[in-house]
Protein: S-protein homolog
Organism: Ceratodon purpureus
Amino acid sequence: MSKTMSSVVFLLLFLVVMDSASLVFSGGIPRTLQGSVLIYNQIGIGVTPVEVRCKSETNEVVISETALLSGQRVGWGFQYSIWGHTRYICNFKWGSRTQEFNVWVDANPAEHWRVPPPCTHCVWHVVPEGFKAYESTGVLGTVVAEYAWRTATREKIHRSP
């Protein structure tokens, strides 16, 4: 390859990289990388509150231990990583039952743009049988994940592709 041709290729590659970087750092992409988690206690009136505690993968507490009465909710919003490193874990306790699982997890970093997270704005309903997650689009739609209360081992019941 001639020196002129390699200089042109290098310049084009440099411009593409700089354009991508400016898009990321100027706020162009983050608008599409906003996530949220809402957790609703839907167990029923007159029963023991559900205790919830949530943290990030780096152990940053996002919800300190909170007791949710029936009908109450707790939640947070966040900007997730374009590299697929965002994860939030919650611990739940209801009477003698417990459970811990990822309430929001990013797609595999290698497939981030091809395979999105199961829900971007996850709405979790805590019910007597366990937990159901929906994508919040204004109206609850298809269940995207479901867990039972812990027995001997934690089991994931269902997760849509």
